[in-house]
């Protein structure tokens, strides 16, 4: 009988490791890498094809998404940003037309106001930008550990793209059966195209 391994402690250690890497990053270097990721992303065919951009609003230790959101507005895309609805992993995205529509929550995070913004439910021609402390070459991620994106991605049918620094990329990360990998991972140096299982079966 196959032994079931609890990967949660391993993920916690990895989360702490990559958080330290992010916190110790030189500010000038981070700014340069953020810009390189931005340039690669907005020139990518999967970004250009997308009519709706689902994108998180970055915090200080994450890859900057403010420039990405502003570019999406300039490109006349529908822009949707996330709101954590409860503490049980339930997250929804809401459409905004300007960054001015975002408000700080009790933790200082910028979020949309569900009372003022329309919920995004159409995933047709949609691209979701995924946050993470780290990604591996199969598109799996180490997130913040709350499970919000894991649950959302179970029902998201669009294209999924991670954004990540090269020093937070690794060959393999532990993942469970409910973890959904990215289709692409954009780094300062390259865009990783993740090979899907159905493609592998035809090799």
UniProtKB/TrEMBL annotation:
It catalyses: (6S)-5-formyl-5,6,7,8-tetrahydrofolate + ATP = (6R)-5,10-methenyltetrahydrofolate + ADP + phosphate. ATP binds at residues 11-15, 141-149. It is an enzyme of class 6 (ligase). It comes from the Bacteria. Coiled coil: none annotated. Pfam families: 5-FTHF_cyc-lig. GO terms for biological process: folic acid-containing compound biosynthetic process; tetrahydrofolate interconversion. One of its GO terms (molecular function) is 5-formyltetrahydrofolate cyclo-ligase activity. InterPro entries: FTHF_cligase (IPR002698), FTHF_cligase-like_sf (IPR024185), NagB/RpiA_transferase-like (IPR037171). Its cofactor is Mg(2+). Its EC number is 6.3.3.2. Keywords: ATP-binding, Ligase, Magnesium, Metal-binding, Nucleotide-binding. Substrate binds at residues 57, 62. Belongs to the 5-formyltetrahydrofolate cyclo-ligase family. This is 5-formyltetrahydrofolate cyclo-ligase. It comes from Merdimmobilis hominis. The lineage of its organism: Bacteria, Bacillati, Bacillota, Clostridia, Eubacteriales.
